[in-house]
Amino acid sequence: MDRPPRRTITPSRPHRERVEPELSPYLDDLLDSARARVAAAAGRESLADLTARAVEMAPGPSLYDALAGPGISVIAEAKRASPSKGPIAPGLDAVAQATAYRRGGAAAVSVLTEPTRFAGSLDDLAAVAATGVPALRKDFLVDPYQVWEARAAGAAAILLIVAALDDHQLDLLHEEARNAGLDVLVEVHDDVEVARATRLGARIIGVNARDLRTFELDRQAFARLRPDLPSGVLAVAESGISTSEEIRDAAAAGADAVLVGESLVRAADPAAALAALVAAGAVTEPADVPANVPGDAPVGAPSPHPSTPNPIA
């Protein structure tokens, strides 16, 4: 499927009420850190120079296309730590992990580039993108500079967290990504954020079961919000997924893809663990999921029986 043509940012937009995000001290701290990283990086290389360097590189493969196939696609995540769990896999080799994910059937690899709480880096992103798999930059993006950092690193897509951005920032970064030739995974947590992502015209919307403001995990979030997503978008279930049964639950709720992280980086054999999840998401018929217009063993454990395709998406 071809990507939509790039668009040019224009100042004339229909006026709508500006929505300000409700930030927690934790999220506010991460956003402050992101802005400081941008300032430091821009002091070393200007946005103009970064953009010129980025456009000389071949664009990464399309995340949208990678997720648009039949069944449940799996975005496998490479991360060493998280604020809620602390160190998870401190010695993780991003390239080795991504290579294992490719063997296991990952449609794409999400790479944490936030250095303080997640122990990630842009070097990780570039190294994973160099393997040829569609690479998603997962970070707290607040500035167009970070979009072009992702493009220069070979990313296929970026993550935009609706909870972290006001409407102006969300529009600006979404448009900048399109101009850079990047797909965008727009992450939401509640119905208000779904409405904002819908107004944005997002083509890939992820429902994160973990609220970044409270760290609480709501395992019913995807099923509850999926009917509110506009028809035609790719719907991604994020967080709290580690078993084949949970993959099938996401499929039954209408997921096109899932994002799986912690269970895979903890697995002794991440390729085999991922292959089991991919097999659970193999389907033969699409789900009949309403949408508005405009248990298995844990991952890494031996399965008592092979997963079988289910006629659901």
Determine the N-to-C terminus distance.
19 Å
Structural class: alpha/beta
| Secondary structure tally: strands | 10
As a percent range, the share of helical residues equals 25-40%
Instruction: Kindly report the average pLDDT value.
Output: 86
Task: Give me the CATH architecture of the domain at 67-280, please.
Answer: Alpha-Beta Barrel
Radius of gyration: 18 Å
Low-confidence stretches: 1-18, 293-313
The amount of beta strand, in percent, is 5-15%
Question: Topology, please?
Answer:
Blueprint: H1 25-44, H2 47-55, H3 63-67, E1 73-78, E2 81-82, E3 86-87, H4 94-104, E4 108-112, H5 122-129, E5 135-138, H6 144-152, E6 157-161, H7 167-179, E7 183-188, H8 191-200, E8 204-208, H9 221-225, E9 234-238, H10 244-252, E10 257-260, H11 262-266, H12 270-280
Parallel strand pairs: 1-4, 1-10, 4-5, 5-6, 6-7, 7-8, 8-9, 9-10
Antiparallel strand pairs: 2-3
Helix pairs in contact: 2-6, 4-5, 4-12, 10-12
Walk me through the structure:
The chain has an eight-stranded parallel barrel with strand order 1-4-5-6-7-8-9-10, surrounded by seven helices. The chain has a two-stranded antiparallel sheet with strand order 2-3. The two termini are 19 Å apart. It is built from twelve helices and ten strands. By secondary structure, it is an alpha/beta fold. The chain is 37% helix and 14% strand.
